Amino acid sequence: MISVRGLTKRFGANTVLDGIDLEIGAGERVAIIGPSGTGKSTLLRSLNFLEKPDEGQITVGDVSVDAKTATAAEQRGLRRRTSFVFQNYALFANKTARDNIAEGLITVRGWERAKAHARADEILSTIGLANRGDSYPAALSGGQQQRVGIGRAMAADAELMLIDEPTSALDPEWVDEVLQLLKRVADARQTMLIVTHEMQFARDISDRVLFMDGGRIVEQGPPEVMFSRPKDPRTAAFLRKVL
Amino acid sequence: MRPLDLDYMLGLVPVLLKYVPLTLAMASVAMVCALALASLMAIVRVTRVPLLDGFTQVFISFFRGTPLLVQLFLFYYGLPQVFSFLTAINGVTAAVMGLTLHFAAYMAESIRAAIIGVDRSQWEASLSVGMTTPQMMRRIILPQAARVAAPTLVNYFVDIIKSTSLAFTLGVTELMGAAQKEAAGSFLYFEAFILVAVIYWIIVEALTVVQRQLELRLGKAHAR
Q: What SUPFAM superfamilies does its record include (chain B) (predicted)?
């Protein structure tokens, strides 16, 4: 169970997140859509304190953190219960694909190397890169790198997977393989919050769609309602532009 | 022009080579200590540890801003007059200490620049999986910074090797000191000093082979 209360983030005089309230149930897959610069990515990055929010309460499972008083240990607790897929993959450049997936298991969860590598190899098979375990990120295509990035997030076995525009940095030829993998992750009922510009994909995998504008959640609902009968004129205008 | 005394030079080779181990030992100890100290100072500066950051800045400023020879004299001749427990310090220790502190100041800035140069995404990815700052530094950031800093750091090692010759001004008989003593006895200064120059040159050239191997190893992750 994930709960967000009054999450606020300001950059100088600019309020990027304006008191976000959000509940996500176990196994729920939530997509965030909306124009650029409306705080979608900042919301994801604030949930694991890659950006430190100014105000608000974040609860993921048994960890509850108040933005104003968050200690370093509490932030780490939150990060250990969430996993993050970056727009630009952000694989550890000095680690092989296998080690990228195993790193968190070894360093953060204290697994033995052999056990972590065995788990990493399972995941490499799942993401279709069984034969690329020894490859460094620089030797992988963009699509392969993002699949490893998703594999790293899968290894964390997190209560919430945060996915930030996973295909925006990809050449068109690699988009499909990444979306297909994410679809399989979603089908396994991994709780996820995903920011995406791929509307068809959002419609396919999500239980609920949030439309954000101006740092607020303007409207939300099941994808079939949101995409065909949006209530708010801002949602309708946005969807007319992108669909 | 007088002809070179080749027989004298040949005879001098084994005499001087005996001092190579001391030169290399002084340089290696200074390099290892300087590298450790410089890494710590670089991390202190990058992560802006309160108090220590300011102290580190002053340290770096002083040891970069004053000549090595002055620092060595200060350590060997000066400090023991103020702190009596330092009177027992010998020339080798004083030289290694001086070289360590002097070069640590330079290396700290190179390492700091290399750390800052590591892409922001690497920090974020480390934090996102739940690593602590020390874990992130040790496992992700420093290994990547090492690759960038390696050529510069090897250059400093070359500089350290050559700078050990200043130890002779503290009364240490190392490679340069030995050559000086021999020349003073034979009056064949050119023979003695050209020989000692060639020995330093060969040591440094041998090091560049090691450097190439090191860079190849550190660059492994970046080969396409």
A: MetI-like
pLDDT tens for A73-111 read 999 999 999 999 999 999 999 999 999 999 999 999 999
Q: Is residue A147 part of a domain?
A: no
Q: Inspect the interface and report whether the beta carbons of A86 and B124 lie closer than 8 Å.
A: yes
Give which of B118, B119, B129 to mutate to test A binding, by max A Cβ within 10 Å: B129
Q: Which of B128, B223, B224 comes nearest A48 by C-beta?
A: B128
> Mean pLDDT for chain A?
95
User: At the topology level of CATH, where does B6-222 sit?
Assistant: MetI-like fold (1.10.3720)
The chain B residue lying nearest A104, using CA atoms, is B129
CB-based contact (8 Å) between B51 and chain A?
no
Q: Is residue A29 in some structural domain? A: yes
On the question of pLDDT at B224 being above 80, the answer is no
**Chain A contact for B138 (CB, 8 A cutoff):** no
Sequence-separated (6 or more) residues with CB below 8 Å from residue A116: A102, A105, A106
Give domain status of residue A130, yes or no: no
pLDDT score recorded for residue B7:
87
Residue extents of the structural domains in chain B: 6-222
ipTM at complex level: 0.93
Q: What is the mean pLDDT of residues B36-48?
A: 93
Cα separation, A195 vs B47, in Å, equals: 31
